[in-house]
Write a structure and sequence with these properties.
By secondary structure, the chain is mainly α. The protein has twelve helices and three strands. Strands 1-2-3 form a three-stranded antiparallel β-sheet, with no helix packed on it. Helix 7 packs across helix 8. The longest helix is centred in the last third of the chain and has 18 residues. It is globular. It starts with 5 loop residues before the first strand and ends with a helix. About 35% of the residues are buried.
Length: about 290
Amino acid sequence: MTQVPLQFGSARVVGQFLTLTLGRAIALMMLCGTGACVAVVAPITVPAVGSRYAMNETVHNAPLIVPEMLDRFGLAIQACPSAVTRTRIPKEYWHDHPRAAALPSVALSRQTLREYCAREDICDVQRVMTVTAWGVAREPNRKRIGKVLEPISTLLARARDSGIPRSTAYDRFDQALIAGLGPAFFTKLIHFCVPPFNGYILDQFTAKSFDILTDQQSSLCSKSGVVPRGRGGQRYEIFCRAIEMLADYRGLSAEQVELDMYAGRNHPWRLFVKKRWDEKYLISAR
């Protein structure tokens, strides 16, 4: 395998090179486009002006992206663009809660939810309740979350006000061990509420996509297909970096890549990921 400077192919990043520094190899990243395979060693510096990474920042634990999977991902999204609408009217969703009257009375998109969470005239309890409604937590989880709104809101306030990186925010939520507060929920809070808003939603669908794209052998999901506690902020950071690298490669926003990884019910990519997952973990276990 040849070590070469890597140039992403999107118009947004033409001219941006990853400088590979000699050292102990900690990861492999394989990208298609030119057909070349690139061995990435630690550290990786990104000196280009305009890159999402700062000058001379080191990028550790770069993920492995499999060319065949990247090809399939691109083709599936091109054939059927993702347009997932995940929404409930918060006031109606929380109809039996005393605080429901203060919640939005219209369904919120990603953009309008982000704008709502940025308002200074609402409290963190309202943010938690509204994000829960947007994510359409199932009824048992809604009831569990309704009982622990205050401690979740306290965690959120600390994360919002402390300027901590996304990996630290992940660890703090993950280690709180609050019933109903799993990664699929609290990464939505990180995404919509915690500056600089560069944490991405990690649920079973985006996690499985990550595992299939990067051949990480269930680094984020358990073999049963859920994202358990205890995976740690470092792995979440790798997940977020992979999304950002794919975004640069495809010339899209990172949020759009995350949405594409989520895909949606009966989307070609979702169906392909399910098939691969079943073949890898369920069928092989019989």
